[in-house]
């Protein structure tokens, strides 16, 4: 039976090789969705691909996607292309015990289409040798020996019904498979099987389980970023707290972890009154495929996420390029380059293809043939959307002794019979279709032309003409068959196969009947787009009038300052009709009833820059110590040295360019006091607005926020650190102004001063929503003793606020220099941490 295995993989480098080698003889294809592994898992999988094992690797670098979403999307993408009869739904830490492929399929053949087989799953526990063996742990061939006393049913085999390909909903952990009927769901029928079972091995050693806890927390937060009540309920939180406290996990705790790791087994045990059972059963598992040979590629470093604030730097995400009228589907081509191990290629697509492919495949040298120069060997010739008249020219020019593979898809569908004639033309010139690479390229494609018509050709094997004929017949039959349903995405750039799940809003926007979007370059040549200017139409009856004074263009605005100092109120005064705010703004809450005017993706980007800067300035060990206990979105409360420069990279540049593409803009984030240079690189004409309240007011409000905000659960800082956070923001902004940035200083009370607001409107070039600010929302009445350093900085800010629109920069510099003479810049040693 044509069989396929599907599994979601995340940081399983210690056993992923054993998993692949054990299951490869059982199926025709292993499809592994790698969700952002950082421990060598992906490198091991690429090495196994290079060996020729039947493996399709699907990159999914988005932690926020739920496992069920990933599994369902991968199945719906792959199943119509490969058309398996059986689909094994496995976990990467689960091994199928079976009597052999023939005997197993003889039993599963009785399974009706559209049904699943439930297998007993036993949870195995680490023994003393496993706990004492350092990374990468003991050999899986010898380690699966002792299991727990309870088994749970696991719906691990699907007998595919092609009619259900677009309706099935797959779920992790062996839960029953669902089928959609409009808005309703039903459960596929499940049948028991006697000849097979599953060995589950979730806890394998101290380093492995420590990494599992840490990376699991990272993923848990990403998936519940907007659900603080769920984010706070991490099931492994007690073990995470031990790691965060620097105590580590003791080997004796792993036995308890192994018993609790399988929630279903735990529930069965509790129902049966067996929750206190400690006994294990000796039941060794026989694994196939031989010992590990790639363990050297594994790199397990459980503390790395702690050094980077658990989630930072962010994993590579989707490209947010706006549609340009051309689909640049990099994901299947990048995977093809990896599978072929290609190092030199000829790319005959548009400039977008060449530039963007160079960005995602920097190891691939793109060769440009020159007339009069000798031909050089290349691993790949890539021709996206190949015109029909180019086929005979390329077939004659591409010499099999110099070209490894040719990959292309036609610009237009083939007419009836045209594909067979074209394949015979290629065969005459020494080329034949590579069925495995062709199906893989199609399965990872996000557009119908790639999924239905992509071809990968390899030099013809003249010793096996019957195989070439059979493959040609298969491809011709596939072309003649009705196309599987596919929801087409608007033309854009696709960096990884499941990106379509994350750009649906972009696709709907592009499909809406509106003016065409501006054409933007992509890849390394991308820059922030110019702001389009619309001209009012003149009425036919209008009479000429004297020319009005030219109005200054509306300026973009970046708002910074300490948290709880009025930044949200100031941002809210900029109307969406004149300024673009960040998308997906946080909803109003009790502490900010009219809104925060911040977005998670802007906060995450700034926090990634902060951690990148700290690691460059302090080093990884000091950064780890300084950020211990912080979680995402909490770094606005972290303190850094004044002389720590902002350090950002190309990934940050691309993300900032995307964030500022709509102008004039108004972006606000307290962290921007430190990351400001990175933003001004992309928006050099922006005005920076610094707003402040008295330090005692802001510090008291910060302390209160740490008591009521759900995302600050378990986080506390001292009054001393609250003042330090306040000083950090404004010292940075003062230093930025002294260095030449266009910073304007405002007091919170200036938001209710009509004359000051008129001055601000004139500078910005747009009216403000003056009724947005309400005095009654200034509710904090502090009773805190202010330290001398904060008092001195507050006096300077008040003076600068009085002078901010006088355009007397030289006089302002003298004030700042006098302040710095008494209160010098705080150096980088020692690196401060919050009071915990």
UniProtKB/TrEMBL annotation:
<dbReference type="Pfam" id="PF13469">
    <property type="entry name" value="Sulfotransfer_3"/>
</dbReference>
<dbReference type="InterPro" id="IPR027417">
    <property type="entry name" value="P-loop_NTPase"/>
</dbReference>
<dbReference type="Pfam" id="PF13704">
    <property type="entry name" value="Glyco_tranf_2_4"/>
</dbReference>
<protein>
    <submittedName>
        <fullName>Sulfotransferase</fullName>
    </submittedName>
</protein>
């Amino acid at each position: 039976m044509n069989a396929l295995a599907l599994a979601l993989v995340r940081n399983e480098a210690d056993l992923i090789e054993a998993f692949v080698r054990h299951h490869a003889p059982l199926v025709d294809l292993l499809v592994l969705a790698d969700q952002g592994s950082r421990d060598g898992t992906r490198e091991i999988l690429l090495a196994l691909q290079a060996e020729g094992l039947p493996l399709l690797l699907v990159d999914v670098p988005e932690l926020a996607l739920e496992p069920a979403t990933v599994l369902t999307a991968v199945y719906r993408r792959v199943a119509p292309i490969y058309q398996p009869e059986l689909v094994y739904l496995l976990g990467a830490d689960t091994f199928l015990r079976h009597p052999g492929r023939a005997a197993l399929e003889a039993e599963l053949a009785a399974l009706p289409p559209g049904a699943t087989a439930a297998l007993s799953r036993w949870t195995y526990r680490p023994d003393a040798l496993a706990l004492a063996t350092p990374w990468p742990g003991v050999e899986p061939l010898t380690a699966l020996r002792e299991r727990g006393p309870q088994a749970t049913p696991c719906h691990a085999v699907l007998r595919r019904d092609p009619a259900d390909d677009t309706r099935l909903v797959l779920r992790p952990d062996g839960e029953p498979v669902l089928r959609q009927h409009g808005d309703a769901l039903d459960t596929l029928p499940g049948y028991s099987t006697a000849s097979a079972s599953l060995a589950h091995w979730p806890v394998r050693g101290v380093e492995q389980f420590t990494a599992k806890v840490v990376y699991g927390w990272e993923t848990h937060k990403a998936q519940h970023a907007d659900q603080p009540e769920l984010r706070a309920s991490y099931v492994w939180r007690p073990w995470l707290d031990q790691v965060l406290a620097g105590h580590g996990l003791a080997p004796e705790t792993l036995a308890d972890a192994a018993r609790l790791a399988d929630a279903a087994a735990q529930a069965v045990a509790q129902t049966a009154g067996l929750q206190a059972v400690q006994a294990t059963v000796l039941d060794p598992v026989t694994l196939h495929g031989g010992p590990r040979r790639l363990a050297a590629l594994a790199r397990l470093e459980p503390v790395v996420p702690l050094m980077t604030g658990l989630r930072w730097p962010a994993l590579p995400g989707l490209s947010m390029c706006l549609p340009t009228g051309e689909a640049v589907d990099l994901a299947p081509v990048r995977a093809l380059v990896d599978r072929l191990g290609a190092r030199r290629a000829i790319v005959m697509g548009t400039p977008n293809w060449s530039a963007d492919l160079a960005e995602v495949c920097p190891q691939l040298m793109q060769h440009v043939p020159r007339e009069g120069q000798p031909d050089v060997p290349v691993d790949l010739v890539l021709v996206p959307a190949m015109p029909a008249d180019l086929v005979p020219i390329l077939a004659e020019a591409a010499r099999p002794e110099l070209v490894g593979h040719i990959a292309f898809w036609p610009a237009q569908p083939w007419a009836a019979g045209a594909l067979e004639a074209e394949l015979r033309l290629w065969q005459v010139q020494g080329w034949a279709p590579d069925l495995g690479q062709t199906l893989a390229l199609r399965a990872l494609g996000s557009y119908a032309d790639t999924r239905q018509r992509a071809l990968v050709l390899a030099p013809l094997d003249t010793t096996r003409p019957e195989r070439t004929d059979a493959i040609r017949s298969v491809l011709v039959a596939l072309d003649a068959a009705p196309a599987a349903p596919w929801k087409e995405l608007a033309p854009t750039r696709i960096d990884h196969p499941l990106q379509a799940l994350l750009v649906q809003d972009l696709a709907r926007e592009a499909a809406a009947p509106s003016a065409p979007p501006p054409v933007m370059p992509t890849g390394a040549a991308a820059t922030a787009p110019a702001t389009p200017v619309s001209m009012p139409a003149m009425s036919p009856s209008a009479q000429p009038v004297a020319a009005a004074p030219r109005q200054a263009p509306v300026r973009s605005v970046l708002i910074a300052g300490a948290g709880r100092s009025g930044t949200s109120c100031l941002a809210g005064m900029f109307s969406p009709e004149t300024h673009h705010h960040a998308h997906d703004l946080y909803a109003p809450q009790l502490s900010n009833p009219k809104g925060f005017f911040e977005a998670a993706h802007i906060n995450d980007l700034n926090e990634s820059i902060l951690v990148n800067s700290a690691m460059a300035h302090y080093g990884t060990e000091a950064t780890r110590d300084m950020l211990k206990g912080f979680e995402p979105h909490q770094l606005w409360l972290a303190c850094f040295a004044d002389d720590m420069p902002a350090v950002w990279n190309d990934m940050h540049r691309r993300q900032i360019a995307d964030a500022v593409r709509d102008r004039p803009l108004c972006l606000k984030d307290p962290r921007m006091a430190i990351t400001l240079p990175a933003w001004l690189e992309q928006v050099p004409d922006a005005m920076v607005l610094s707003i402040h309240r008295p330090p005692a007011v802001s510090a008291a409000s910060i302390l209160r926020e740490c008591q009521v905000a759900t995302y600050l659960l378990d986080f506390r800082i001292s009054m001393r650190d609250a003042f330090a956070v306040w000083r950090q923001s404004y010292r940075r902004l003062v230093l930025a102004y002294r260095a030449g940035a266009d910073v304007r200083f405002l007091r919170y009370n200036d938001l209710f001063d009509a004359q000051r607001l008129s001055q601000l409107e004139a500078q910005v070039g747009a009216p403000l929503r003056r009724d947005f600010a309400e005095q009654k929302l200034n509710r904090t009445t502090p009773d805190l003793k202010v330290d001398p350093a904060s008092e001195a900085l507050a006096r300077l800010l008040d003076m600068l606020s009085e002078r901010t629109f006088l355009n007397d920069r030289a006089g302002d510099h003298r004030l700042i220099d006098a302040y710095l003479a008494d209160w010098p810049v705080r150096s980088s040693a020692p690196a401060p941490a919050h009071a915990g």
